[in-house]
Write a structure and sequence with these properties.
Elements lengths: L7 H14 L7 H7 L5 H29 L3 H26 L7 H23 L4
Length: about 130
């Protein structure tokens, strides 16, 4: 009995097109709408790097705001938590990009991961903020 197996190259091309055509996992609507219009890998890398930098800045602002309102042991714990989170983010995103190590998609995957984790951290920081 003969089993049909599509050529490996054709399968790889279908997979690559699927990854490029669809917004990366964890993408938010605003960012994916902007980055989804990028036509080249360089443009996608640049767009997602800008999105990650923007969300990183938002996390920094929210963290500074929360830190300013904290006192004593709260400050110490918040600082430790933020440092641990940054270590986690960098390690997680390095692993996410590692799937594409040496390829042109690697920087985009790292940036998509950073943006996704930054947005989750931002939501956590906002939830922890005292009212007012």
């Amino acid at each position: 009995m003969m089993v049909f197996r599509p050529p490996v190259l054709a399968s790889a091309l279908v997979l690559a097109w699927t990854l490029i055509a669809a917004p990366p996992s964890g993408a938010n609507a605003a960012t994916s709408g902007t980055c989804a219009t990028a036509q080249t890998q360089l443009a996608m890398n640049t767009c997602w790097a800008a999105a990650a930098n923007t969300s990183d800045h938002q996390v920094s602002v929210a963290y500074a705001h929360l830190l300013a309102k904290a006192s004593g042991s709260e400050r110490t714990l918040l600082t430790a938590a933020q440092n641990a989170w940054k270590t986690y983010r960098e390690t997680e995103c390095k692993a996410a990009g590692g799937v594409y190590a040496g390829g042109s998609m690697q920087p985009m995957e790292v940036s998509v991961c950073r943006d996704r984790l930054n947005r989750a951290r931002l939501a956590d920081l906002k939830a922890d903020a005292p009212p007012g």
